[in-house]
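The records we work with from here on pair a chain with its fold. A complete example follows; check for yourself that the lines match position by position.
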Amino acid sequence: MPDHVDLPHTLGALRASGHRYRSVKDEIRENLLHRIRSGEERFPGIVGFSETVLPQLERALLARHDVVLLGERGQGKTRLIRTLTGLLDEWSPAVAGCALNDHPYAPVSPQARRMVAEYGDDLPIVWRHRDERYSEKLATPDTSVGDLIGDIDPVKLAEGRSLGDPETVHYGLVPRSNRGVFCINELPDLAARVQVALFNVLEERDVQIRGYQLRLPLDMLVVASANPEDYTNRGRIITPLKDRFGAEIRTHYPVELDDEIA
């Protein structure tokens, strides 16, 4: 694809270019299939998993599953997760000025839907590089629902908006990862009430913020890492949340000496 400066910058020009909308999971699936057929490296820099972890991960991505990687520290879980950005399209369009990186063909935030209705084919488009479509959060016991999902923005209320206005919401990391890959490391370290807040994100793909029930059909791949020891020593993934991940993959230390040296 040409440099993003040569790409369409309005909704009308985007439609005229023949651009096709795909969900993030479809995008990753199709790009992974292309790499498999062409023999390209799928997960650069990952050593020792070619006969074990990587085939399982490929099957999970082809099945459009959210994934949790279970393994001891130092087994390369986060490094493996970060390679998934290479399976995204190099450039992806988004509605300019919207916090949720809404795709122009499928806006999810109230602001983006309003802009699409207001501007029509003149809607301004920006292009995001695949490296910008990856978000990562290290889970800690003090991580709050507001950090991940969002909260009411007092500044917007002070500007005169009503409390029932959905545009008074300040979105957290998860909604802001819309149209990308969201990674949460050490998932069991999240307090149980915060894990509960992720239920709807993983299953119904909507969010609930302080009494608001916003229908935000978030489009993302969610990948988590966890240490099996954490289930008893420091915390656990609560069962309903664990069940919402379509695939659970166990990692390991390198089996072969050559892999360990590499």
